[in-house]
Automatic annotation (TrEMBL):
It comes from Aspergillus arachidicola. Pfam families: MFS_1 (PF07690). This is Major facilitator superfamily domain-containing protein. The chain crosses the membrane at residues 23-42, 54-73, 85-103, 115-135. It is a multi-pass membrane protein. It is found in: Membrane. Residues 1-141 form the Major facilitator superfamily (MFS) profile domain.
Amino acid sequence: MSASIYSAAQEEVAHEFNGSSTFSSLGLALYVLGYGVGSMFLSPPSELPSVGRNVPYVVAMTIYVLISIPTALSQDIATLLTLRFFQGFFGSPLLTTGGASLGDVSREPNKPYAFYSLATFSLAGPALGITRAGFSTPVLG
């Protein structure tokens, strides 16, 4: 449940937990806050040769996926909001370290195309995600 699907489901979250739409939008804000804080802690170790780029990706994404389960099953708004922060925290290395990973694996004449692709898909993902969530959230709840 990333940022785009949550923003489409804010009304359902407010209804499910008997809160206001302002209070339910805190879930998106905490996700983005966790995204910013997590990138400061989880991305710098990837620059260490002893750690490499793969370890932060694997550890953070594993925790991100595992946190998604209790987030989907949360019974109160406090649990949901806390887990949303941690989802943002552990989801952050994917985007913040992605450029460095592309720089490592692409050759010099192709680097501009690699970075163009990263920028394009990084911007297209949330736009397409919220469009899809806008259709699926009312149907699936």
